[in-house]
Design a protein that fits this description.
With 191 residues, the protein is mainly beta. It has two helices and eight strands; from the N terminus they run E-E-H-E-E-E-H-E-E-E. The radius of gyration is 28 Å and the shape is elongated. The termini are far apart.
């Protein structure tokens, strides 16, 4: 039913749809999506209401990995990825339908993988002509501790302080070692 009324010089239109419960549930089931669930590493946003207005509740066949509220607990490193079946129950009035989603929850990274990823993520920018001090990170984005050393402390100190040499250019190698849980991975940056 569409109701139209003229107010002043503006027309106000109010749409009121009386969708049967079965159709509402079917529409919501057809449009319900969780996106790409092939490599989940963070909590999921599980909708509680469908786009047509149905109520949605969730269950998990592995609530210790994915809880009914979407909270994700990744398997420990070395245990492998977990496959979880999430079931959405879509209800409107007396009508209901279920829809299942297969979700792969990635295992946590090993200490070595964390150290390698943090080392690979170091970006000091353009090092072709260094004229000022360098901001050397001491912690990686995944939590590794990063320790720096320099092949020539008189030019570039391990804390990033630069002392420009007089006369000729000098090449210095900075070495970053990222540590986590007694695992180390090295990366080098030449100046």
């Amino acid at each position: 039913e569409i109701t139209t009324r003229l107010v002043g010089s503006e027309m106000c239109i109010r749409d009121r749809f009386a969708i049967p419960d079965e159709e509402r549930v079917q529409r919501d089931a057809d449009t319900l999506s969780l996106g790409n669930t092939s490599a989940v590493t963070a909590d999921l946003a599980l909708p509680a209401k469908g786009s047509a207005g149905s109520e949605i509740t969730w269950t998990s066949d592995k609530p210790d990995v994915i809880a009914a509220d979407g909270t994700v607990t990744r398997p420990a490193a070395g245990l492998g990825d977990a496959e979880v079946i999430l079931t959405a129950t879509i209800r409107s009035g007396e009508a209901s339908q279920t829809k299942q989603f297969t979700v792969i929850v990635k295992q946590q990274l090993t200490a070595e993988e964390i150290a390698q990823a943090d080392a690979a993520g170091i970006d000091l920018g353009n090092l072709n002509a260094v004229t000022g001090n360098l901001a050397l990170p001491s912690k990686g984005t995944l939590g590794s501790e990063i320790i720096w050393s320099s092949s020539d402390e008189s030019v570039v100190a391990a804390d990033g302080t630069v002392k420009r040499p007089t006369g000729e250019e000098k090449e210095v190698t900075l070495t970053a070692v990222s540590y986590t849980h007694l695992r180390a991975h090295e990366t080098r940056s030449n100046l």
